[in-house]
Design a protein that fits this description.
- The chain is mainly alpha-helical.
- The chain has a domain of 243 residues.
- Helices cover 74% and strands 0% of the residues.
- The protein has 16 helices and no strands.
- Helix 1 crosses helix 2.
- The longest helix is centred in the middle third of the chain and has 30 residues.
- The protein starts with 11 loop residues before the first helix and ends with a helix.
């Protein structure tokens, strides 16, 4: 206990760094036991996983490519969470955001590259933000829970995309539900083209300049949530809506703002996938990134820097898992999903399992140090 009779404070790095690290180690330990049960060497599996994610530049660039999508969807969940909302509609918001990007690249490709990029970014934000705006309004003014409405909007987005791709936006003369390829000025340069700018060669990988935009979005979210009046109001509504009303803050207005910003961030997945990696509009490009973003935000403690680190972790699991499944036939893609699920379980759902014991340990050490100082 402190000199004022209150529990000694636990160092912040314990909650932010040590406890998540311990949970992550436990997750991989349990995953190692699973790998052992199917007759494979866990240490060899870990080596292949790490090598597959970081073993060479190409693998590392694939990891960053996956991480880019997770940054967008993780930030989307984090912003809503600070307002006390659980946005699980990142999948649909990313889908519709990608539609906005595709429409710009298809019908405004007469614009020069310096103009079409900001227009595409604004379109992704507008389409994704509007798709989240409606659940926000329903929550704020009708009491409809965002968990229910965002789930419903995921399915509506999927159905809408199927209709548009099959009946309207499909390229003439082909059976695959894809649009025509974008012209070069309507695409984001990949890392291969960046190398070419400096006279170097590199093989084609999907990583593109949207990764830089993802990093800028991390800075934006940090500034918005912790350095602006809007962010203060959002956090106040999330912490205590009644206190917010007492302080003259409108919960309804901030719910709508938080959901719209959240949807805009998720919509940026379309910049990476549609304008960058695929360079055409197609079905199923979201590939579950919206749902993984929930785990990314939880593991990252809804902080932009934490979301960045968690995104790199899941990017490594995606890329390293693909290499692992290729090198060890007994470890199927489903087994890799199990490993990812264990990480989510320990670092997310069971994050408080060892927290009391670890915090008590540091409190006892703090009390002992305080007692020794008082004795001197």
């Amino acid at each position: 206990m402190s000199s004022f009779g209150k529990p000694a404070a636990v160092p912040r790095w314990v909650n932010i760094g040590l406890i998540p690290l311990i949970n992550l180690v436990l997750a991989f330990a349990v995953a190692g036991v699973v790998v052992l049960f199917i007759g494979e060497n866990p240490l060899r599996a870990v080596e292949l996983l790490i090598t597959g994610a970081f073993g060479n530049l190409a693998n590392f660039y694939y990891t960053l490519y996956y991480a880019t999508n997770f940054i967008f969807t993780g930030l989307a969940v984090a912003v809503a969470f600070h307002c006390g909302l659980f946005n699980i509609g990142g999948e649909g918001q990313a889908y519709i955001g990608g539609l906005g990007v595709g429409l710009v690249c298809l019908f405004f490709d007469f614009l020069p590259f310096p103009l079409i990029v900001p227009v595409a970014i604004l379109s992704a934000a507008l389409f994704g933000g509007l798709w989240a705006y409606v659940p926000g309004v329903l929550q704020a003014y009708r009491g409809s829970h965002t968990v229910i409405t965002t789930i419903m909007f995921n399915y509506i987005a999927a159905a809408l995309m199927v209709y548009l791709m099959v009946n309207i936006l499909i390229a003439p003369g082909q059976q695959s539900p894809e649009s025509r390829a974008f012209i070069d000025s309507a695409t984001l340069p990949t890392i291969r083209e960046v190398y070419a700018w400096f006279g170097a060669e590199f093989r084609r990988v999907p990583l593109n300049l949207s990764f830089i935009w993802a990093l800028l979005c991390c800075v934006f979210v940090y500034y918005l949530i912790w350095r602006t009046r809007w962010g203060y109001e959002i956090r106040t509504v999330g912490a205590n809506p009644r206190a917010a009303v007492y302080g003259g803050i409108s919960p309804a207005r901030n719910i709508v703002i938080a959901m719209s910003v959240s949807g805009a961030l998720a919509g940026f997945v379309g910049i990476n996938e549609i304008m960058g990696a695929n360079q055409r509009l197609l079905l199923n490009f979201v590939a579950g990134y919206g749902f993984v973003g929930i785990a990314v935000a939880l593991i990252g403690r809804n902080h932009p820097f934490g979301v960045l680190l968690a995104s790199l972790l899941f990017g490594a699991l995606y890329q390293g898992g693909s290499e692992l499944a290729f090198e060890m036939p007994n470890i199927t893609r489903e087994m890799v999903v199990v490993i990812q699920g264990l990480v989510i379980l320990f670092a997310g759902a069971l994050e408080n399992m060892f927290r009391p014991q670890i915090e008590a340990l540091f409190r006892n050490r703090s009390d002992e140090a305080a007692a020794a100082a008082a004795a001197e």
